[in-house]
Amino acid sequence: MKTFSLTAALLCALLFPGLVSAQSVISGQVTDDTGEPLIGANVLIQSLVIGASTDIDGNYTFQVPAANVGQSLELTAGYIGFTDQVRTITISEGIMTEDFVLAPDPLQLDEFVVTGVAEATPRKKLAFTVSQVDSEAITLAPASNPVASIQGKVAGVAVQARSGTPGDGVSVRLRGATSITGSNQPLFIVDGVVLGANQVDIDALDIENVEIVKGAAASSLYGSRAQNGVFNITTRRGGSIPLNQTRVTVRNEYGVSGVVKSFQANTSHDLRVDGSGNFLDNTGAKNECTTCLSNGYGPGTLQDTNPHGAAFYDNPYQGTLYNAFDQFFNPGNTWTNYVGVSQNSAKTNFLASFTNVVEQGAIQGLTGLQRRNVRVNLDHRIRPNLTLSTS
Q1: Which of 79, 188, 282, 386 maximizes the CB count within 10 A of its CB?
Q2: What are the tens digits of pLDDT across the range 12-36?
Q3: Reported pTM
Q4: 3-state helix, strand, coil in the chain (%, to 5)
Q5: Whether 76 contacts 46, CB under 8 Å
Q6: Where does the chain have alpha helices with state H?
């Protein structure tokens, strides 16, 4: 693939010499330290807002306008899980070849954190600890409530459903309760907007990452409102995919909601007693027992056996029996339909998604939860130092 790119550039130089002389072509390959190509790595000149992403062989190619020939600019190559590499190059006419070998970042120290800081800051420069859950861990088992998707993924975070009602909120505890009478819920922030726990009704598949701050560090960042911790949710945007690509995501899920444990219904009634406290047999006649009262089996007392050795609740009901639990609880269907479209270009990127969630629940006759989410995130670079972002 790299040979083809260079050959194509040479053909352009031979057939259209005026075109090639008017601008510079930068091409090359991005690999890891073992020589394996990195697919989807971004190589760009940030000051000019131009670049390209690598193909299946790790190759990239893009053009630089003639007005920038002779300038010294920074060329950056980056890939998730690897340390970015920046080098300064002088733009010249014709074909320029720049290969990159990226080193892995096992500690993810170059991950950026947005919680409690003015702008994205590398993790290694933070004075406090921030736990992160990325979209890959969330999409493995997404829940109808996005906060519930964090359960079991961060140490010290307990997420419990408030009830079995479909669509009901969840209760979150970071490390433990801090108040007896007040709320123990953390502060929820979605794309910089402070929301209540019941207002976080976005779809879990639209989450890019979740940053969690526990303890006193949260109060130092957001004040007394964050004394129970902070959940900072960042939604997906088009800029998270490689440059000059359009991605369409379709996901459908189906499940069944039911009662985990059922109850054994009673199919018999207790022994009958007349007005004088005498036990009656199945025919309604007095049960002649001379030892019942002497053994302490008086009227209204609960005994293990009657004179005939039968259990106290051992008179079977006559006729048709109905199980009220089976009639009240009925397994319901649950399904989620998700469609998302994202695109990333040099100046504009966007993400548009639609989600349909239906959770019927396990109680007969109730409609359960029906929710439809529509989300649009748009970023447009007006100038190199001015960007308009909307959600």
Answers
A1: 79
A2: 555 545 444 457 899 999 999 888 9
A3: 0.61
A4: 15, 40, 45
A5: yes
A6: 2-15, 17-21, 135-140, 216-222, 324-328
